[in-house]
Amino acid sequence: MACDGRQPTPLHVFGQLPRLSSLYTQVCVCFPLEGNSSREKVVTRIRRGYRRLACWVPWIADAVEFDHSDGLYKIIPTPSSAPFSDSGSAFRVSERRLEDRLPSYQAIREAGFPFSLLREEDLASRRTLPNGTGAGLEPLTCAYGSLNAEREAAIFEVQVNLVDGGCLLVFSAQHNCMDMVAMSEAIRLFFEACRDNGTEDAGQDTMEFGRLDRWGTSLARHSGQSTVRGQGTSPEPAPVSTSKPAAQPVVLSSVDPTTGDTPAATWSYIVFSNDSHTQLKAQAMRDLPDHAKTDFVSTDDVICAILWQNITHARTVRLASSVTTSDGAVTSTTSFERLVDSRPYLGLPGRHPGNFVHKVTTTLSISEVVDQTLGYLASCLRNTLSETDRIEREVRASAEVLRESLRLRAGAGPPERPKPSSMNVKMSSWAKEKCYEFDFGCCLGKPEAVRRPAFEAWEGLAFLMPKRIDGEIAAAVCLREEDTERLKADENFAKWVRWVG
């Protein structure tokens, strides 16, 4: 259905993954806020800001739907009056008062903005994972009832959570449409739209972000040679199945092969101060092996390396020198998976909207990870990222596999991702995103903390939060409870971090 001349727009090929269609990413941006008048002013400004943003970037207020006529996920325009009318001002913005449910903002601050006080069922309009997926999941409820059940897949929503002395602003972004790079840009533009000096007219960068033709409709149907570094033109797409793909189960945690149970896991924030990761990087540079392929490692490399090493050490206490994977096989290796931005490999601008995450993996023996120097591990991680030709081939091959799955799709979609080993770590780094520099203006200013709210435990999953202006980086890590306790009690690791939980 067209809306004010806008037509449904197919997502790019990486937005056609069925398993992304019910997933959301949340970001919680925390501000101190005093006084009822300030609260009312902030809520009014947020509603107005969203309306302004929807004028600049019309698809931001739209939704994603599966089109049975051609078998593609598409951005479906919403009536233009909805985000702008008085009744429609809450169309993608909601408000929740949590003074009776959560402690004061000061108490949350003193606790370090921990997962235990920032839960998606309290703070988010959507849940991260769809209802009914994974082992033992029960639907969560919030102010709306069951969070994602039988609701349209809105692209971008905002929930204003008011606690005593503060405002916890939570953004929820639909995962077919946005990875963290795109979501960070959407949040930046939202803050710009909320400011008093925000112009009613969109700037050039905003107009570029808002162009629907930037979604790359050619990518939605064919990939490979057409978009990667100017490699020419791809042929016309093959016929596409129009069956809606079946929902893909989301694996939350390793299953104990002896009992069939999913071990209890928990989320924790582990904070690296600027001094801490600066000293760790200096140590890693001193420890680089003579045969290293690179004389450079990044701060991300070093933080990932020390987390991998100490998490693996905590796990080996439980599992000795080898572990059993979910299919019963025995392994003595561990892998560190990093989710990287594939835009450069597709010849796309750095802030291009969409989900362009690609996984690169470094696999070493458990003994190497536990016993080698920090510099050795960091250089191994850097070497994997430096293999740009291989990564480009993988990105292009992934696009081709997805294109073929669209052509042949008969209700199944691409293969399910393998269940994670109980020895692996999967890291998504948001450290480069400039969220702490975003200025809301009136009453709020710049954020005091940026966190991901707690969602269902997913053993081995980790995130690096955006770097604070003073250089502090918070790592979000999900581990089995017994491994968490061992890591927390590790005196050598404790020298470098502040445990928030």
Give a description of the structure.
- The protein has 501 residues and is an alpha+beta fold.
- It folds into two domains: 9-226, Chloramphenicol Acetyltransferase (2-Layer Sandwich), CATH 3.30.559.10; 265-437 and 456-499, Chloramphenicol Acetyltransferase, CATH 3.30.559.
- It has 13 helices and 20 strands.
- Strand 12 and strand 13 form a beta hairpin.
- Helix 7 (274-286) packs across helix 10 (374-386) and helix 8 (299-319) crosses helix 12 (481-489).
- The N and C termini lie far apart (47 Å).
- The model is unreliable at 85-90, 132-150, 217-253 and 410-415 (pLDDT under 50).
- This is Trichothecene 3-O-acetyltransferase.
- Keywords: Transferase.
- Residues 23-194 form the Trichothecene 3-O-acetyltransferase-like N-terminal domain.
